[in-house]
Amino acid sequence: xxxxxxxxxxxxxxxxxxxxxVTAHADTLADIKKAGKIRVAIxxxxxxxGMTDDKMQPTGSDVDLAKLLAKDLGVQxxxxxxxxxxxxxxxxxxxxxxxxxxxxxxxxxxxxIDFSIPYADHPSVVAGLKxxxxxxxxxxxxxxxxxxxxxxxxxxxxxxxxxxxxxxxxDDAAMALAVASGQADILATARSLxxxxxxxxxxxxxxxxxxxxxxxxAIGVRKDDPQLLAWINDWVKTNLxxxxxxAIYKQYHGVxxxxxxxxxxxxx
Length: 268
What we know:
The protein has helices spanning 3-19, 28-35, 61-73, 87-92, 107-110, 152-160, 172-180, 194-199, 226-241, 244-253, 259-266; strands spanning 37-42, 51-52, 58-59, 76-81, 98-99, 113-115, 120-129, 144-148, 165-169, 186-190, 206-217, 220-222. It is α/β, with parallel strands linked by helices. The strands form four sheets. Strands 4-1-5-12-6 form a five-stranded mixed β-sheet. A hairpin with a 5-residue loop joins strand 2 (51-52) and strand 3 (58-59). The chain is elongated, with a radius of gyration of 22 Å.
């Protein structure tokens, strides 16, 4: 092949890559500013992170975080309703610009998306009625434990509590109903969900017994989007330092986030 033919072939390859949208780096931040809005994927069925109020408007700690982020970015917020399994696919298929939806940092997820620095902790606990005596995972031997299928709690129990009788439910609502109705006295879930679960039937209030692990919540961003990721990281640091993220979390969850530990993880 002569030089002219090689250059013609190279030009064709570059055009083909451009036609399919293959670029070294995206610039979603510029696109967001140009559009004047940011599309944020949020699950509005996992109170107190995401839910709807009596006027059927989205609310919760993730919603308020997204509102603050959009305000500071100077754009409108568009909430894209999602579910646990669809959070990352919605990001990958460009149906959302970022994900703010109880998204824990995990090695497997980090292979397909990028994470901001963490903005909150997310302890995973075994909880039960006050009358239930549990001090460690060995105490679960022979006992029924409710869990949502496919969650980190499901994985942890399967691996660490081999003597437990694990009863799997398809979502948090079904598990909460099982606890409220007396079908389950012990469950494994995120600590933050316990108040909402107990609210279903105050006579069957559940309390944390064992902390299995502490996950860290972060904002999900598509791979190779350095400008947006850098802006979000700076934003998280700023709002950890000024206490705004802590105030949002406290309002909805009734507990404090470990601000110093979160800032230490960010390198601040």
